[in-house]
């Protein structure tokens, strides 16, 4: 007699304890392995343990990289890694295509492979800790910053460069060795990458995890404190941490979740954005010299080349192109409380490299120097409000660098600024909406809703306030 087929065991759709465990880690200001007060000395010691050197070089000294004779595109002879190409973007906004019109050309990074940004979690003394890495990136202003457990492109972890194995990659690729807490494709910088996504992952280990050199276990509370220090927690860590399922302490908001979803859909529908990859050599108003590709006005960014030496990387020496912005950026959320519930003002942002027409971003996201020559009405909305904010209105401020593997000295002043009705009305201008941090946390469970700058600030919004502040 045939046995009936086994039915798969059912399980709860949501781990009811997970959010409380995350909150427990966020409230823990000290960990079991490394005290927060000792972190700076630990990071400095890791920097002394390895030789790091980054030097600018002319394009002719790039090893394995060259400009295509026909297109002028800059690529690697292996066909792997990435290429620097041209992009033509046209945009019309408005329900009938009758809104403001924009048209521009620029260099763009084309890197079709999906990388892994993964953080490993393990419980010590009943408190979840996060395995972070002191990682050198050639574009970081101070080279060494706190990165995820794994921060690797497909070329890295498949060893296209013939380098060493990526440490801890087995927890994130291949057969599962732990419990997945978060796993979502998220965009990279849409202004400099063409349709680039990374897999943002958080995995809780179920067994013993060896602690290797350059790695440390930290609680969320400790990482929150480090987010107040300039150029310590790198961009990849910030975007992964934003994907954590934090507790929702506010059940009310100005917009219901369905109203917010409808507003986002409406913004995506009303923008007509067309992008076309074009030969780099044909991009108007950008000129190529021996060491840079730059705009004729000296604004925006440059394409440069560097030689890198890093003893603790999978490959210890290489050359590569990098994008270098001209000037320091400003990335800020304006914040208000409505009936006691904290909201931030998000903007529907169009960036040429996005997979969809818009993603939500901070209230202000720009490099002020690019607009210094314009009259106030032509400058980005709310920029002057942020720049003029008195100290007692600034809830959070730190200098953070952007992705150090592709961008050189790309720093932004990240802020959360309290506003009032005169600064930022409850009924905001078109393209802006008031949302709660909990609503943003819900959105980042899905890809391509909140841009990388917004996710960086969300990691701070969801963090516990460090003692003494």
Describe the structure.
By secondary structure, the chain is an alpha+beta fold. The protein has 9 helices and 24 strands. Among the domains are: 18-51 and 113-241, Alpha-Beta Complex (Nucleoside Triphosphate Pyrophosphohydrolase); 261-274 and 327-461, Nucleoside Triphosphate Pyrophosphohydrolase (Alpha-Beta Complex). 16% of the residues lie in helices and 34% in strands. Strands 6, 7, 8, 9, 10, 11 and 12 form a 7-stranded mixed β-sheet that branches. Strands 18, 19, 20, 21, 22, 23 and 24 form a 7-stranded mixed β-sheet that branches. Strands 1, 14, 15, 16 and 17 form a 5-stranded antiparallel β-sheet that branches. Strand 18 (329-338) and strand 19 form a beta hairpin. Helix 5 crosses helix 9. It is globular. DTDP-4-dehydro-6-deoxy-alpha-D-glucose 1 binds at residues 65, 153-157, 236, 403-406.
């Amino acid at each position: 007699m045939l046995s009936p087929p086994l039915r798969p065991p059912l399980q709860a759709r949501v781990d009811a304890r997970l959010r409380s465990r995350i909150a427990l880690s966020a409230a823990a200001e000290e960990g079991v392995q490394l005290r927060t007060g000792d972190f700076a000395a630990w990071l400095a010691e890791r920097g002394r343990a390895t030789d790091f050197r980054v030097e600018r070089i002319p394009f002719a000294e790039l090893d394995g990289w060259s400009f295509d004779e026909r297109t002028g595109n800059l690529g690697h002879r292996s066909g792997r890694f990435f290429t620097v190409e041209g992009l033509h973007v046209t945009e019309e906004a408005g329900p009938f295509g009758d809104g403001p019109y924009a048209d521009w050309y620029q260099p763009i990074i084309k890197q079709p492979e999906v990388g892994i940004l993964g953080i490993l979690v393990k419980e010590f003394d009943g408190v979840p800790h996060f395995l972070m890495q002191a990682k050198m990136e050639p574009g970081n202003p101070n080279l060494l910053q706190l990165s995820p457990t794994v921060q690797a492109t497909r070329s890295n972890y498949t060893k296209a460069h013939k380098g060493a194995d990526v440490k801890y990659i087995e927890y994130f690729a291949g057969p599962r060795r732990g419990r997945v807490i978060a796993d979502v494709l998220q965009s990279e910088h849409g202004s400099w990458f063409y349709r680039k996504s990374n897999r943002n992952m958080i995995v809780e280990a179920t067994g013993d995890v060896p602690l290797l050199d350059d790695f440390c276990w930290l609680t969320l509370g400790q990482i929150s404190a480090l987010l107040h220090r300039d150029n310590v927690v790198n961009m990849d860590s910030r975007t992964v941490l934003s994907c954590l399922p934090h507790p929702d302490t506010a059940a009310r908001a100005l917009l219901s979740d369905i109203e917010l979803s409808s507003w986002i859909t409406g913004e995506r529908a009303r923008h007509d954005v067309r992008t076309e990859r074009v030969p780099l050599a044909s991009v108007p108003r950008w000129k190529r010299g021996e060491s840079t590709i730059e705009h004729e006005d000296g604004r925006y960014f440059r394409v440069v080349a560097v030689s890198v030496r890093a003893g603790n990387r999978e490959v210890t020496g290489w050359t590569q192109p990098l994008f270098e912005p001209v000037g320091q950026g400003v990335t800020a959320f304006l914040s208000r409380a409505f009936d006691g519930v904290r909201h931030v003002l998000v903007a529907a942002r169009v960036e040429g490299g996005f997979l969809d027409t818009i993603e939500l971003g901070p209230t202000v996201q720009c490099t002020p120097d690019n607009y210094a020559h314009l009259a106030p009405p032509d400058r980005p909305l709310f920029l002057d409000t942020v720049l003029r904010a008195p100290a007692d209105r600034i809830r959070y401020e730190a200098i953070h660098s952007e992705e150090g593997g592709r961008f050189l000295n790309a720093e932004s002043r990240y802020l959360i600024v309290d506003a009032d009705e005169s600064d930022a009305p409850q009924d905001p201008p078109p393209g802006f909406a008031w949302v709660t941090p909990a609503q943003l946390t819900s959105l980042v469970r899905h890809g391509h809703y909140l841009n990388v700058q917004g996710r960086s600030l969300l990691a701070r919004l969801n963090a516990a306030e460090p003692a003494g502040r």
